[in-house]
Predict the structure of Cytochrome c oxidase subunit 2.
Amino acid sequence: MAHPSQLGFQDAASPLMEELLNFHDHALMIVFLISTLVLYIIVAMVTASLTDKLVLDSQEIEIIWTILPAAILIFIALPSLRILYLMDEINDPHLTIKAMGHQWYWSYEYTDYEDLAFDSYMVPTQDLVPGQFRLLETDHRMVVPMESPIRVLVSAEDVLHSWTVPALGVKVDAIPGRLNQTTFITNRSGVFYGQCSEICGANHSFMPIVIESVPLKHFENWTSLMVEDI
């Protein structure tokens, strides 16, 4: 989860988020190099004591400032396109979960398990126990097995919402009447927090998302208990 005064991204908990962090660092270094070059040119032009007023154009400079930006865009576009294809790739998911946005809570349905569905509400501040986080904890967590491809179908019942978990590199719009999908793999066990990222009304800030990644054996025990309770 995020920490106070944090400037960077959250620690990656999925292979996709690791790729996004690498691409961010790659693009940021290019931005730093461009900024340094532009600053040097500005300083050189301002401090230069001699200018050639007879030069109206330079073919060499025209070629350089046409080819160089094109090459930079290629260096940025190629890894970006690769990540876009990785985000859309869904091959034989082990589990499919439907996430439905409501004003103002999320409901989850495990389509591979009969009658396994529940609503997930934010835990009020006065009901929090030691170790739980204000505005982030829910009464029912979305539990998934670790190291397994998970497909999430996202939609909404009333207005626009957005199902977002930064540590997993997942952000999907929840649109009424439309079914969007995303996929992720958690490479470690843990609890990962997210929030609705589309302004959806007065309680937009109070519909958090909590994903708990556990070993497969623990997940099977959890599903058995949930089905029995229902």
